[in-house]
Design brief:
The chain is an alpha/beta fold and 272 residues long. Helices cover 42% and strands 17% of the residues.
């Protein structure tokens, strides 16, 4: 079997009892960075052999792991932190398993994107995950521009050295009033979370002396159609003119279409 085993994103005690049991009993653990995985296994006295499976050797190592699986060995796939394959290697091995009908067992567990989303206070009924933003500003702005009218909550990962540049591009492409929830070093000693408008988040980052370590999760509120909360003099003048020539219902309908105003507000105005 191939077990997909999530590991803690910072706090080693966030490992599940089932995950520890599987890591102890499998024949081999496949992880991105052997030394990073050893921190976890040594802490829980797990002596299972660890081999590297990273973006540089994924194709070759996946073939070797496939041979082990076909010979009846059990393999645990882990990442440096969190749920494997989410922006991490492992897809090739998983597709081999599907191709050769090798049983895959995914375990539930830590994931920075979902952990951050749960604390954001933004809509969780519909959301999209965009992974890491492009490193170059032009490509990054192009992607953000394509998300301008995305009405689902947007989840993004970012690195410390690009966080300010990325927030600047978010302000430029999505506007200065978008709600943003920023989470860094989740579950760790220096965990920090903050929610504000994109403009204020940028100001806070520029003025903050806290060193931004580790991966950062950014949650962005989805696009919302802005409706006029008041009736301008121009709107009321249009309504007044149309009312003198048309039935009230028609006058309100036409005014609303011309000015993209709320028909309910127009009705309320005529009843006062």
């Amino acid at each position: 079997m191939l077990y997909i085993v999530p590991t803690p994103i910072g706090n080693l005690t966030d490992i599940t009892i089932r995950a520890l049991s599987i890591l102890k009993k499998v024949n081999v653990i496949a992880g991105e960075n052997i030394n990073r995985t050893k921190i976890l296994t040594k802490n829980y006295e797990i002596s299972t052999k660890i081999i590297s499976l990273n973006k540089y050797n994924e194709k070759n190592k996946s073939k070797k792991l496939l041979i082990k699986l076909k010979n009846g060995e059990n393999v645990a796939l882990v990442s440096d932190a969190g749920t494997p394959v989410i922006n991490d290697p492992g897809k090739i091995l998983i597709n081999y398993c599907h191709q050769f009908e090798i049983h895959i067992v995914p375990l539930p567990g830590p994931c920075a994107a979902i952990t951050a989303l749960s604390a954001s206070g933004l809509s969780t009924s519909k959301f999209c995950y965009e992974g890491f933003l492009p490193s170059k500003s032009n490509s990054r702005r192009k992607l953000l521009s394509s998300l301008k009218q995305e009405n689902r909550t947007i989840i993004i990962y970012e690195t410390p050295h690009r966080i300010i540049s990325s927030i600047k591009d978010i302000v430029k492409e999505l506007g200065c009033d978008r709600k943003i929830f920023l989470a860094k070093e989740l579950t760790k000693k220096w965990e920090l979370i903050r929610r504000d408008t994109s403009k204020n988040i940028l100001l806070w980052l520029n003025n903050n002396t806290i060193k931004m370590k580790g991966e950062i999760t950014i949650i962005i509120s989805g696009y919302q159609i802005k409706t006029k909360s008041y009736l301008s003099k121009k709107v009321l003048k249009t309504l007044q003119i149309l009312q003198s020539h048309l039935p009230l219902k028609t006058a309100i309908k036409v005014t609303a279409q011309l000015h993209k105003a709320s028909k309910n507000m127009l009705y309320k105005h005529t009843t006062h």
